[in-house]
Design goal:
With about 200 residues, the chain is of the alpha+beta class. The protein has one domain: L,D-transpeptidase catalytic domain-like (Beta Barrel). Helix content is about 15%, strand content about 35%. It contains three helices and 14 strands. This is Lipoprotein-anchoring transpeptidase ErfK/SrfK. It comes from Aquamicrobium aerolatum DSM 21857. One of its GO terms (cellular component) is extracellular region.
């Protein structure tokens, strides 16, 4: 290889590092989507081979000024990053709000719930009258839209109404289909739930 080409490759690598880009994966957890028994529920295996590899849970290099434990949601790229020490992050594939239901800003995790009850907001019931049967709440379970876990986001104004939550609809990951909440595969939200603490900062951009 010619010397000038070697210098060019080195320069490109340095530029990427300075830009704070996510680089290649350090560890990928493709084998973690097996059937799991959790709180009496048998979560089905996810056909992870049908999900783009970039959306599989993985540890990546990630440069940020935010402290470890912060969650950063990149709605454009459909990634959620849990910031770890030493310039690394756990990255999860996500599904985000469809057009007209997007949300951006900063919040804090105020509550964490396992197999949460889902209560559709009145606006959603108006759009989908068939959901009226869950006006007082749909109990947690395998068909519940919030999946196996939910992290409730609050800001200075109180409950934002937005959640980081699981979903039985694994094929929605990498797409904009939700009513604004950030959804993860159930096996991923269980992993994130164990890592994230109450009070953790969440940035949605």
């Amino acid at each position: 290889m010619r010397p000038n080409r070697i210098l060019m490759i080195a320069a490109l690598g340095a530029m990427a590092a300075l830009a704070g880009c996510t680089t290649s994966s350090e560890q990928i957890f493709t084998s973690s989507y097996v059937s799991v028994k959790d709180a009496g529920y048998q979560l089905p295996k996810i056909p992870i081979e049908k999900v783009e590899r970039k959306y599989h849970r993985q540890v990546v290099a990630y440069r940020t000024d935010e402290k470890p434990g912060t969650i950063i949601v990149d709605t454009k790229e459909k990634f959620l990053y849990f910031v770890m020490p030493e310039g690394r992050a756990m990255r999860y594939g996500i599904g985000v709000g469809r057009e007209g239901f997007e949300w951006q800003g900063s919040a804090r995790i105020a509550m964490k719930r396992e197999w949460p009850t889902w209560t559709p907001p009145s606006e959603m019931i108006k759009r989908q009258p068939e959901l009226a049967k869950w006006r007082t709440g749909q109990p947690g379970g395998l068909s519940n839209p919030l999946g196996a876990r939910a992290l409730y986001l609050f800001n200075k104004g109180g409950d934002t109404g937005y959640r980081l939550h699981g979903t039985p609809e694994w094929n929605s990951i990498g797409k904009a289909t939700s009513s604004g909440c950030i959804r993860l595969m159930n096996q991923d939200i269980i992993d994130l739930y164990e890592r994230a603490e109450n009070g953790a900062k969440v940035i949605v951009k």
